[in-house]
Design brief:
The protein is an all-alpha fold and about 280 residues long. The chain has 13 helices and no strands. Helix 4 packs parallel to helix 8 and helix 4 packs across helix 11. It is elongated, with a radius of gyration of 20 Å. The two termini are about 20 Å apart. About 45% of the residues are buried.
Length: about 280
């Protein structure tokens, strides 16, 4: 552990001790959120997955793949792809949650937290809120890059903001799955591989980047019931962008906004209690 980490943890520890019987869980959660944000500010390359990657991915898919992918029903590939590119970036960025918690676990920070009179779940909630703030930055960069290359939403401001909120809510839910993986990983490197094994296939086997109408029936069924497909389709509906998946007569594609909300709530309802159990186990064993 570096001297910077020790200083940061020392400041956080003292704040947590003072807040234990006064302001309680809310203050402790803010202390943990602030700790994570301070750590990011002192190692800004940690933000590469929500700053550089969104810029690269947006340009890559629009200019390299866009010209060769026709959109059923017509429309611009830029308008079609931006929701998918946003989903790809937000879902893959949740790897940071797994890596961060695994690093805290294997560098001894959990041992320090164990000795503090604090709400154990503040470790998780603080981490998830810090990652949600970085996800907001990612969404902003994708939106600005998209506008620069020709993306134009065909909906009012409230609907456009609703599309971003839908995507961010799903990413927040997935970050709790990442937390479960990080708390059970053998090392931060193992936690990082979680994204390559599960998260990237989850986004690519969907309607995020290419239309699914002409896929084999078995693969189209998988993509149709993939939660990423529902979130992406719901975002396209809210943005007023091309959504070829609306021609698929399956409930998630006919009601993508509702399906996206249901998926997000279900994932959060399962992953949050599981992550809470794992962090309590790791701070008491």
């Amino acid at each position: 552990m570096t001297s910077t980490d020790i200083t940061e943890s020392g400041v956080g520890s003292e704040r947590l001790r003072r807040s234990g019987g006064v302001r309680g869980p809310l203050s402790q959660t803010w202390s943990m959120t602030r700790r994570n944000l301070i750590h990011i500010s002192r190692a800004p390359m940690q933000l590469s997955d929500v700053t550089i990657q969104p810029l690269v991915f947006t340009l890559l898919f629009v200019y390299i793949f866009g010209g060769g992918i026709p959109i059923p029903g017509g429309g611009s590939y830029v308008d079609y792809a931006l929701a998918g590119v946003l989903a790809l970036n937000l879902v893959s960025s949740t790897m940071g949650t797994a890596v961060g918690l695994s690093t805290d676990l294997h560098e001894g920070m959990m041992e320090r937290f164990r000795a503090l009179p604090m709400w154990r779940s503040a470790i998780l909630v603080g981490r998830s809120l810090a990652d949600l703030l970085t996800a907001l930055l990612c969404a902003l960069i994708v939106a600005l890059t998209g506008l620069a290359v020709g993306w134009r939403p065909e909906a009012n401001l409230a609907s456009v903001l609703g599309g971003f909120a839908l995507m961010l809510f799903f990413a927040y839910a997935v970050s709790w799955v990442s937390a479960c993986m990080g708390l059970n990983a053998q090392s931060p490197e193992t936690a990082a591989s979680f994204g390559l094994i599960l998260l990237l296939p989850l986004t690519f086997v969907s309607n995020a980047i290419v239309p699914t109408e002409h896929m084999p029936d078995w693969l189209q069924t998988i993509t149709t019931w993939n939660p990423v497909s529902s979130v992406v389709a719901g975002t396209r509906v809210l943005w007023g962008n091309p959504n070829p998946s609306a021609t698929i007569q399956a409930w998630p594609m006919q009601h993508p906004i509702e399906a996206a909300l249901i998926w997000s709530v279900l994932i959060l309802a399962v992953a949050a209690p599981a992550a809470t159990y794992f962090v309590k186990r790791r701070t008491t064993e």
